[in-house]
Amino acid sequence: MSSCSADNPILSITIHHKSTAHTLSLPQTSTLEDLTNKIHSILQIPPSNQKLLIAPKPGMLKSPFPPIPLTALLPLTSPKFKITLLGTPTPAIEALHAQSTESQRRALSRASALSAAQKHKPRHTSSSAGGIHTLSSPNQYTFHRCLPLSYLPNPARSLQFLERLRDDPGIRAAMAKHKFSVPLLTEMNPAEHTTSESRTLGLNRNKGEVIELRLRTDAYDGYRDYRTIRKTLCHELAHCVFSEHDRDFWDLTGLIEREVERGDWKSGGHRLTGEDFYVPADWENERGRELVDECGWTGGEFVLGGLREDEVGRRAERTTGDDGVESRREVLARAAEERMKKERRWEEEEGGEN
């Protein structure tokens, strides 16, 4: 929402961030760059970490932001006008860094203690015919936590899906070879990463601190193909090393994908197809509307530091009130509405081609 008048040369703009509405007052001559600086001063989110989803147009904008006048850029008179801010405050990012460092320190400390105990353990000179063989130390190269979104339908099913990816023999083998240790593997909310032009399949934040995967269909009524999601995970693991989609990144992605296929003993270690890992021109489908990701992210929209699943669930069960929190029914309705818009647009394009 926004308001301005000739008598009052102040532009009032409401920004929605993490289910909370923030009303900002700026001079009527302010630019988009001024708006992002104002957001930084109030919410402590640097412009480089900001993404602005402006409805109905121009859509998603991200850094660097041009100095375009807000009155020329924003559809202020539209009844559907809304600005959603995607971004994480600097203190939250620092908290995640500290949490990740502490988790890695504890994991290394446990591994060191177990290794020292193993050295002092007496060795048996003979072996028995039977018995259970276990690893001498836990595998530190894995996803240390799997977190579903508890405010979406059937979070237990999502947790099983995430744990299946974590325990996939091919994924485990590839992560051990490249020494990938990821603190958090979580699912992506399709409604937050779907636009009329594209849908994002995965995200890697801060080179392996958090990996998000699109598990669900857009309508939340089912789950996507497992092998397709696993390929996306290979892509996101490569972002632990390379942020940009350059030649080095694609070479590593292809290598990880082949290693995952070879390490998948449940499938006999054989690839189901003779193709190498996808590249954008080959792997997109649904008329180019699927976007693997937008390169490796620094910061980004995620609840960092002290996240508790029961809190997320309770917030999502509440109906929309003054604080702007959406209920589960509204989330599903918004996803269904977006899907219907896409279908109408595709039908119009097909009619135009005929």
UniProtKB/TrEMBL annotation:
Q: Which InterPro entries match?
A: Ubiquitin-like_domsf, WLM_dom
One Pfam family it belongs to: WLM
The UniProt record lists the WLM domain at: 134-341
User: Any idea which GO molecular function terms this record carries?
Assistant: proteasome binding
Region of interest called Disordered, as start-end residue ranges on this chain: 98-133
> Which superkingdom?
Eukaryota
Protein name listed in UniProt: WLM domain-containing protein
